[in-house]
């Protein structure tokens, strides 16, 4: 902890705040992976001087996994108790992560969450697929086609009676 405080004094960490929880994230991780955070912390904005960014519209358990991604280059939904508490499927989680990655312009996380969504979609039951539709269509902009196109392919397969998708 002392090392972390010393590094904070040296300006190596920035703070993301979500639902009152503070995440200390390496500046290099944020700047190299997110255009939004880079601009917020280097531009003529309050975040630049305060070294904090409030993620007031975002869900803590999704942000927590985004921080895992910044620190480790990946995120895992198998150990997310909030998924059961929130009653969402892994498909819905990946769609929400995709939306968060799009919002903060984290391009590699955008690709990773889309790939995880597609992997999960290949083995999903119809009820999981149907449950993920609102997350895909309500949380992602219409011009971002990755998840929407995979939904259309799954829908077309289901209409043809082929059962599980072969995305």
UniProtKB/TrEMBL annotation:
Organism encoding this protein: Fusarium oxysporum Fo47
Name of this protein: BTB domain-containing protein
Domain BTB: 12-79
């Amino acid at each position: 902890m002392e090392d972390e405080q010393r590094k904070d004094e040296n300006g190596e960490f920035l703070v993301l705040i979500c639902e009152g929880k503070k995440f200390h994230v390496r500046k290099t991780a944020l700047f190299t992976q997110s255009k939004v955070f880079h601009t917020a912390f280097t531009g003529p904005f309050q975040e630049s001087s305060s070294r904090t960014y409030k993620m007031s519209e975002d869900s803590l358990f999704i942000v927590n996994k985004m921080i895992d991604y910044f620190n480790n280059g990946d995120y895992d939904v198998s150990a997310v108790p909030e998924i059961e508490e929130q009653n969402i499927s892994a498909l819905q989680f990946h769609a929400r992560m995709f939306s968060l990655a799009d919002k903060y312009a984290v391009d590699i996380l955008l690709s990773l969450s889309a790939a995880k969504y597609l992997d999960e979609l290949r083995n999903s039951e119809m009820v999981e697929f149907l449950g993920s539709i609102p997350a895909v269509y309500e949380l992602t902009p219409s011009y971002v086609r990755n998840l929407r196109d995979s939904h259309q392919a799954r829908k077309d397969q289901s209409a043809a009676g082929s059962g599980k998708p072969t995305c």
